[in-house]
Amino acid sequence: MSNAPSLELDSATLVEEYDRLGIRQFHHGLQLLDVLGLREGERVLDVGCGTGRLTESAAQRVRAHGEVLGLDPLPLRVQRALERAQGRFAARVGRAETLETVPDAHYDVVYLNSVIHWIPDQAQALREAWRVLKPGARIGFTTMPEEAPHDLHVVLQALFTREPEWRSAGVGAPNKLTRERSAALLRDAGFEVTHNEIRAFGDTFEHVDDVLAFSQSSSFGNFLSSLTPEDIALVRARLVKALEPHRSARGYELTRRMIFATAHKPLAH
Ligand SMILES: C[S@@+](CC[C@H](N)C(=O)[O-])C[C@H]1O[C@@H](n2cnc3c(N)ncnc32)[C@H](O)[C@@H]1O
């Protein structure tokens, strides 16, 4: 995968799978909303809102006097978000790097939950977030730490190192950050960092096919997209063996770590 993931591989099936398996992103997303401390009446922008599950929670927190907009480049995910919204929040197609229809200094909070590692020009995305935030307003993101990868990615990398032709298959996201680079990115955009930590989450998957579907739907089809169906079947068979040490009576138990980074735009700048 190049550093710009394809936005052309999404499908109705991947949207359904994400709605089922992306509950994991939802759970850490709720923690991000807690850290950001959303208040009644606030205006919130969810960048990379996906199918809108977390956007719905943001709308519940700011209640009727607040305003929530979700943006995502994938039309099928935006469609699902709109079905979910039932008028309680807005959603439309858009990208983090060009929030052109969003007015300056409008929002109290901008957040990106499990999104920034997909964005090729992260500095531009943060400049846009800065533009649309009011002075004193907050920004936050969660992202996969490069220095503490997901158990699944460690297992897959080990499998892929042994197969040179699989190396470009795309395991995880192409623009991962470290905790240090997350803070630097925010500071370079002019923000004052308020929170920057790594939290760990235990994921349980009943079946290896759920592990693969989770990765495929979370990556909107980019995961293993360069492999043939025969190669993918081989990856699956080898993954079953490689994941054996992670198996318990409940299923495959995998640890996922996430950076939680928040900051605010200074009042005077
Ligand atoms: C793992 S999903 C996370 C979705 C949602 N934030 C959640 O917590 O469930 C990653 C999302 O990032 C979006 N995305 C990818 N590139 C993006 C970009 N350049 N700007 C905004 N969103 C992007 C994808 O379309 C996808 O919906």
Automatic annotation (TrEMBL):
<dbReference type="InterPro" id="IPR029063">
    <property type="entry name" value="SAM-dependent_MTases_sf"/>
</dbReference>
<feature type="domain" description="Methyltransferase type 11">
    <location>
        <begin position="45"/>
        <end position="139"/>
    </location>
</feature>
<protein>
    <submittedName>
        <fullName>Aklanonic acid methyltransferase DnrC</fullName>
        <ecNumber>2.1.1.288</ecNumber>
    </submittedName>
</protein>
<keyword id="KW-0489">Methyltransferase</keyword>
<dbReference type="GO" id="GO:0032259">
    <property type="term" value="P:methylation"/>
</dbReference>
<dbReference type="InterPro" id="IPR013216">
    <property type="entry name" value="Methyltransf_11"/>
</dbReference>
<dbReference type="Pfam" id="PF08241">
    <property type="entry name" value="Methyltransf_11"/>
</dbReference>
<dbReference type="GO" id="GO:0008168">
    <property type="term" value="F:methyltransferase activity"/>
</dbReference>
<keyword id="KW-0808">Transferase</keyword>
